[in-house]
Design brief:
The chain has 414 residues and is α+β, with helices and mostly antiparallel strands. It has helices spanning 8-22, 24-62, 80-89, 95-105, 140-143, 156-161, 170-176, 219-226, 244-258, 274-289, 292-317, 319-327, 332-369, 377-403, 407-412, and strands at residues 67-71, 109-123, 126-136, 148-151, 165-168, 186-189, 192-200, 205-206, 209-210, 214-218, 233-238, 270-272. Helices cover 57% and strands 17% of the residues. 37% of the residues are buried.
């Protein structure tokens, strides 16, 4: 092999490239190790980012930007003991409580009581098991984003009459009406027939749970089908000039008055605000995202070990060549540049292959887990930078060993 004994960075990179091409199997093994590490790092980070986005989106859908909800109990960060104590202290929120809140709101707050349970939904000989069936009021779209795709939501007349009508999620449409327009068709829930009047936009998944297995019906129809719920949650939003803080205060004071709670007595209900929901989601996503760096570190350390070993083998096999180059005038700096360039080039090639593999993996995973995953530029650049850095680290010891070879002894090697 002929090469200029010196020549700086450009010459060292060119020499490293020729060395890698001359040993394709060794190069392929080192690049494969780095590809697996980068693919793992990029795929895990992309998945974690997707989960975080999905959780934030689900929180935003559940609570509008200015809405809040009155519930019997918000478990949040409570311990089991605290949950048990609160359940004993807090009575259920009833439909009567919801009507009372509406009556004293005086146009300053819009309320929508809702109840939920799992039930099978069937139509055309097909059944979707354990769909999430919600009974609610027609004012819900005024409070939070429902996301209508086709048709319409429940009307006030249907709410008052308890009409047998439903709005269904995309998973219900896909399972019960494949290739068929569901509007106007009948589904059966709890042995009763309901007419489909609207469909919802696909919401994907949040924390591994599908957000498309939903059915909405008038709350009175829900009570006829399943009986009175143990407790309802009451969504609320301020109207007109009333601020969200004022609306929350009015809701709290009204429900405390209805329950005859004296000054200083604790609330016997919880209010979930968008800020509380976002804070809870932020804590969860931070905890989930914390798993990314350790996984990336372990994968990169394994790749560094493989690239270091293959570069050491390269230095060992080229001991005589290195000795001759040193004798012809190559400096230790030239040998260091060449060795580091060799390990870095193979790491970057492996990194590029790993990103290609990661892009395919996240695309394949998007469907089964219900998250729209795709590699973004930031993750790709960070992964390549990590691969390049790992290549430099992997080449440090082989470069140090190569520069410490005795020239005369190296030239005698066969």
């Amino acid at each position: 092999m002929t090469a200029r004994p010196g020549g700086g960075v450009a010459s060292g990179i060119a020499q490293a490239g020729r060395t890698l091409v001359g040993a394709p199997l060794r190069t392929a093994l080192a690049a494969l190790a780095m590809a697996v590490a980068v693919a793992t790092t990029a795929a895990v980070q992309t998945s974690l980012d997707g989960l975080a986005r999905s959780a934030r989106a689900a929180s935003a859908r559940a609570f509008g930007s200015d809405s809040f909800a009155l519930v019997r109990l918000s478990t949040g960060t409570l311990s089991r003991r605290e949950v048990a104590e609160r359940l004993q202290r807090n009575p259920p929120i009833t439909r009567g409580d919801g009507r009372f809140l509406e009556g004293v709101a005086a146009g300053r707050v819009t309320y929508a009581a809702s109840a939920q349970r799992a039930a099978d939904v069937s139509a055309t000989g097909r059944t979707l098991e354990r769909a999430t069936v919600n009974g609610t009021q027609a004012t819900l779209p005024d409070i939070r984003e429902v996301g209508m795709a086709r048709g319409r939501f429940l009307s006030l007349d249907e709410e008052v009459a308890g009409s047998a009508v439903v709005v269904v999620g995309q998973a219900v449409v896909d399972e019960l009406f494949p290739g068929v327009d569901p509007l106007g068709r009948e589904v059966r829930i709890a042995g009763r027939g309901f007419r489909v009047i609207g469909t919802l936009l696909s919401q994907g998944s949040a924390s591994g749970s599908s957000q498309d297995r939903f059915v909405w019906m008038p709350l009175r129809a829900f009570e006829r089908a399943f009986g009175a719920p143990d407790s309802v949650q009451v969504f609320a939003v301020a109207d007109g000039a009333t601020s969200t803080a004022e609306a929350e205060d009015l809701a709290r004071i009204s429900l405390r008055a209805r329950r005859h709670l004296g000054p200083g007595a604790p609330d016997t209900f919880d209010i979930i605000t968008p800020e509380a929901s976002r804070s809870f989601v932020a804590r969860i996503t931070e905890q989930v995202s914390a798993a990314g760096p350790p996984i990336a570190f372990i994968a990169l350390v394994a790749a560094i070990v493989v690239v270091t070993n293959t570069t050491l083998v390269s230095v060992t096999q080229r001991t005589r060549e290195i000795g001759i180059r040193r004798a012809l005038g190559a400096t230790r700096r030239d040998i260091t540049i060449e060795t580091l360039a060799e390990s870095t080039l193979v790491a970057l090639v492996g990194g590029a292959l790993g990103l290609t593999l990661a892009a395919g993996l996240v695309r394949l995973a998007s469907g089964p887990i219900g998250l729209p995953l795709a590699l973004n530029l930031g993750v790709s650049l960070a992964s390549l930078a990590a691969a390049g850095g790992a290549g430099l680290v992997a080449g440090w010891y082989p470069a140090r060993r190569a520069t410490r070879l005795d020239v005369v002894d190296a030239m005698r090697q066969e």
